[in-house]
Amino acid sequence: MTAALSCAHCIIFFTRRGCIFRKTLTESAYLCHYRLHRWDSRYVNFNIGVKTVCIRRITDVYTNCPVRCASSNQPNILNVFNRPMKRKQKNWAASLLDGEKYDYIREEVSGRIADRVFDVARTFPVALDIGCGRGYIAQHLTKETVGKLFQVEVAENALKKAVKSEIPTFNILADEEFLPFKENTFDLVVSSLSLHWANDLPGAFRQIYYVLKPDGVFLGAMIGGDTLYELRCSLQLAEQEREGGFSPHISPYTAATDLGNLLGQAGFNLLTLDTDEIQVNYPGMFDVLEDLKGMGESNCSWNRKPLLHRETMLAAAAIYHEMYGHDDGSVPATFQIFYMIGWKPHESQAKPAKRGSGTVSFSDIGRVHELQSSPTENENP
User: Fold this and answer.
1) In 3-state terms, the chain is what percent helix, strand and coil (to 5)?
2) N or C, which end of the chain has less CB nearby within 10 Å?
3) 74 vs 98, which has greater pLDDT?
4) 226 vs 23, which has greater pLDDT?
């Protein structure tokens, strides 16, 4: 497969031999017939509106879904994800002999997390990586920045294949929702593309706050709500047409506004949130699904549909290509990434000035240089 990963700063190409010719003649003929006779007049002219409606309806599905038993000790936590199933998916993906070729998104995001660690002008004696996978962040860190790193992962096969790093690392098999550490243990906590599978995200943030030392920093990255909107809309339209209804096939994700509120409620201050999009081009929809499975990122919601009919899948592939396909025949898949930085309060941190202590009016902002060069009232002319 040939996949092009593009962002504001770089363009990276990934190649998998032979996969671009995987589509069979029968499938190609079916998709061509499907596009010409069923979808041109109905959806192509309304792709923007259909996208908006699809996202709105899929949100309603999760809002009205039944509440299952809580996954933590708090009785009001929604158990949206099947955590044992997610562990099996991650273990299966980590056991693949060629699993490294599916790590391009994690490698890219982990490198950007490491860049943010380097931007903090200090050394972190003890750090924690939550949901480390094969040690994607550790391989980018240096011993001048981090003294030693504890890596937590729920999938034991991923820990067995952890990559080497120049800093001392300690691997711990534990759930991201239940951190086995004491209060005020770490100077730095990082997490890359793991917390979006947590059922109790507010509780996870509180635990991160708990294990951080005062003036410690948390740097994380999570999947955003617009991720894979092309796949979501295509599956929904195809299932509605072929089966008379639709089920959620893409897991629900957190919005940026909610993320900031949750971090603030957990106790973090000096918050910084930014978003980025990574777009990867694939030969077709089935290649997108194959790579998601290889990443261990398949849907694990409790209310997911166990299977899709063959006709529905072929129809979804045709819609995907018709609505979002490029002129060269490839289709895009968008990954929205939220980056977050939060600090545990400490008396040495900068604090806002008291209300009413300002000496310059906002109306004089344009005259700052003039005010600086003029003598003060206490100086003699």
Assistant:
1) 40, 20, 35
2) C
3) 98
4) 226
Q: Does the pLDDT at position 199 exceed 90? A: no
User: Helices (DSSP H) in the chain: which residue ranges?
Assistant: 25-34, 40-43, 47-63, 83-94, 104-119, 156-160, 201-211, 229-243, 256-266, 285-295, 310-324, 368-373
Distance CA 214, CA 187 (A): 8
Phi, psi of 74 (to 5 degrees): -85, 125
**Ordered alpha helix ranges (H), 95-211:** 104-119, 156-160, 201-211
pLDDT in tens, 332-354: 999 999 999 999 998 887 777 77
Residue 202's nearest CA partner among 363, 70, 332 is 70
Taking only the tens place, the pLDDT of each residue in 126-148 is 999 999 998 999 999 999 999 99
Grouping H, G, I as helix, E, B as strand and the rest as coil, residue 191 is strand
Distance, CA of 29 to CA of 201 (rounded, Å): 46
**Tokens (6 digits) for 138:** 């550790």
Q: Which amino acid is at 5?
A: L
Q: Give the whole-angstrom CA distance, residue 210 versus residue 145.
A: 22
Residue reference for tokens 């800093």? 167
Contact 143, 118 (CB under 8 A): no
**Strand 146-153's sheet: what is its strand order?**
11-15, 2-6, 269-282, 331-343, 212-223, 186-192, 124-130, 146-153, 169-173
Map residue 184 onto helix, strand or coil.
Answer: coil
